[in-house]
Amino acid sequence: MLAAARRLLAALGSPIAPPTGGRALAAVGSAVGPSPARDALAALSALLAPPACWDCGATVAPGQPLCWDCRAQLRFLRGERCPRCGLPAPCVGRCSSPGSALVAAWAPVAFEGPARALVHALKFRGALGVADAMAAQIVAGAPPGLLAAPVALVPVPTHPRRVRVRGFDHAGCLAAAIGARTGLVVVPCLVRGGAPTRQAGSSRVVRRAPGRIEVRARGDPPSHAVLVDDVHTTGATLEACASALRRAGAHAVCAVAYARALR
Predict the structure, then answer these.
(1) What is the pTM assigned to this prediction?
(2) Which helix (H) or strand (E) holds 226?
(3) How far is 86 from 235, CA to CA, in rounded Å?
(4) How confident is the model at residue 96 (pLDDT cuts 50, 70, 90)?
(5) Among 67, 110, 133, 136, which is least packed by CB within 10 angstroms?
């Protein structure tokens, strides 16, 4: 049966090269797109290996990326926060807002535990269906007016080399999922240049070094843009994107991410 699933996957032309186990098959099913073939593959996947929680590996219902226990461990960021950097207030010493090209930045959860597992599932494991669960939490908790017309969603661009390796752009998937829930248009008008940069494990000083992240806008950017990314860490990438949009003529740029790093 596993061989049959792989043959069906190949026939559908999925770009994902799945790992092993129930979560891999769930990732494959979410990547194919809505169709009778996807439904058949999802049913076959459930028979071969029940869907599993992306954090702890416990069995979950189809379409649920986390089990109840792990969902309860998501740390939603409540209370007063800096409107520009999105950190809990006071953010003195950690805030990058002075001179920022961003008007506001916001994320619903802290980048830890189950939230980190979801981000990694989307970015590194090809679990494209996880983007919808992340988008649901973003849309449900977004401050009033942040995700409302006339804004357009602009995905933070992934370097083309990484897109070729992974077969998809994770920020583009998240932006599309947010757009489907809000009706906002997605405008992929930013392009990464230069060599790929490794953000994970880099210090704040290294991440925010001038010129380290090359981003340019193509065409006419939206006047009011909301950048979309999976994680807001130091803000270096968001800042580079916002600066590129402002140089190209955007009037106001905000940002949403699924998770906010607190350290």
Answers:
(1) 0.78
(2) strand 224-232
(3) 10
(4) low
(5) 136
Which amino acid is located at 51 in the chain? P
Domain range annotation of the chain: 2-48, 68-260
Closest CA to 125 of 259, 22, 3: 22
| Residue type at 4 in one-letter notation | A
Topology adopted by domain 68-260 = Rossmann fold (3.40.50)
Question: Dihedral (C-alpha) 26, 1, 9, 134: value to the nearest 10 degrees?
Answer: 0
Provide the sign of the torsion angle of the four alpha carbons 134, 139, 142, 148, taken in this order: positive
Quote the CA–CA distance of 191 and 184 in Å, as a whole number.
Answer: 21
Q: Tell me: the pLDDT tens digits for 165-197?
A: 888 999 999 999 999 999 999 999 999 987 666
Which residue intervals of the chain are DSSP H helices?
2-12, 22-32, 36-48, 68-72, 113-125, 130-141, 160-166, 170-182, 204-207, 236-247
57 φ, ψ (degrees, to nearest 5): 90, 0
pLDDT category, 164, cuts 50, 70, 90?
A: confident
